[in-house]
Amino acid sequence: MKSISFFCLLLICCSSFQIEKPVQTNSYDVVVYGGTPGGVIAAVAAAREGARVVLLEQTRHVGGLNTSGIGTSESEHMIEETYSGLPLEFYERLGKEYGKNGPTFYFESHVAEKVYTDLLREAKVTLVYEAFVQSAQKQGTVIQSITLTNGKQFIGKAFIDATYEGDLMARAGVSHTHGRESREQYGESLAGVRFIDAPIEAAPYDDNGHLLPGFVERSTLTEGQASDRVMNYNFRLMMSTRPDHRPFPKPDSYKPERYVLLTRLLKNHPETKLVDIIDLYSWNYPKGKFETNNKQKAVISLGHFGGNVDYPEADYTRRSAIYQDHKDWTLGLMYYLANDPSVPPALRTETAGYGFSADEFTDNQNFPYYLYVREARRMIGAYVQTQKDILQERTKPDAICLGSHWIDCHHVQRVAVSKTQFVNEGRIWEPISQPYEVSYRAITPKRSECTNLLVPVCVSSSHVGFCSLRVESTWMQLGNSAGIAAAMAVNQKMDVQKLNPKALQQQLTKRGVIISINHQTWNGTQDLPK
């Protein structure tokens, strides 16, 4: 039987929802919406504190991007000693799965899913799949319950929004934003529109002189200005050259003209190889298995520029269409490379030697469940973490975990700079040599808006600040702290904003969370402040 993508199921779910259906109610101490890595860890952390927890996941699988093709903790661009608490336990459990005595920071999606589900089962977290929030019912600033698109209702004393999109946060009336602030708004040198890359020799216009889809004109943009666009999305395919790989299928809506830039490139550069078009990571995977990603400086790659413009605030129906469009782009690109006669024979043969890894996403035709939503909404909470909190003012009195990933923004848009050249705009790649502390207030809404919600993924930050926080390992750290804080707030019958920071920090430390850049167990290899 042909599998159905999670966004197709979403459409079925949303189209069948009717207000008059009887509401089924479930009551919990902590309701976590979103089974991303941050959401799984938040749910387990709260449950280990004695809370009754339900985790509502949008797809048929927990683990977000860690179980949809991202098989790294990003340790190559982070300080490993900042991993602590439950996230570190996750990596240690992964190590055991691979027969290692210690953590592993590179892993396969199906192995990560096993570890996540083991953690949830052992913590006795109730898990609900294919759950989409329709509305939040509030009394004053308190969320009483949320209703799903299938009519089910979940009552909670505390709620955690751990989705990549922040839909619960938005439906609860919490202030949020998306896109990029101007340099002036927070005084960030890395903010706004950025032209830092060299122009690419490829005509951004069609044969009739019209701008190709996904491009914008240079005259519409000013260096450093604000922009409501977010960085590009793509799927993290798991590919294989092993005999059991699944050949790239031809999508129903295949349109080779979508890849005209590639056609032009290959005509002028027939020596082009697959690694010139997409990134292939072998990490510590079994031989012949590869993780993929959008290649930043390629003329064309897995990133579908312009395809995600309205995603952050889109409804479920529109998001389903965006998901499908990205999937069609991705399948079409791989099919084109492996089959189109305009592709040089050597590249065609090389690409045809790859296919989808047969041991991943086995109930979804070996295609990832999640689209790589690098950023969508961001909360405007009690505190906004910005560039200065990463590079200068790195300590916080209410610190709940450490961050250390480089400030990393993929390109946002393609800009035509002449009839024969374009530039990929928006890249940030700023190294970080020292960790920084994340404020508890960055995961709490303004008290005037909501007093029993925590948001550890669509965290309160500027775009620049988010570009360091936006990796699964850091979201897990934030989720760990959010889960413990939620359980404390429930036990103390207290607004999340009123929790005593010192008491929270003591409990986090008790659970093995490193909250300070001056932590005594630091290995001393980093240049830390006194």
TrEMBL record:
Keyword Iron-sulfur: yes
Pfam families, alphabetized: FAD_oxidored
A GO molecular-function descriptor: 4 iron, 4 sulfur cluster binding
Keywords: 4Fe-4S, Iron, Iron-sulfur, Metal-binding, Oxidoreductase
InterPro entries: FAD/NAD-bd_sf (IPR036188), HdrA-like (IPR039650)
Signal peptide from the UniProt entry: none
PANTHER family: COB--COM HETERODISULFIDE REDUCTASE IRON-SULFUR SUBUNIT A, FERREDOXIN:COB-COM HETERODISULFIDE REDUCTASE SUBUNIT A
Name of the protein in question: FAD-dependent oxidoreductase
Organism: Spirosoma telluris
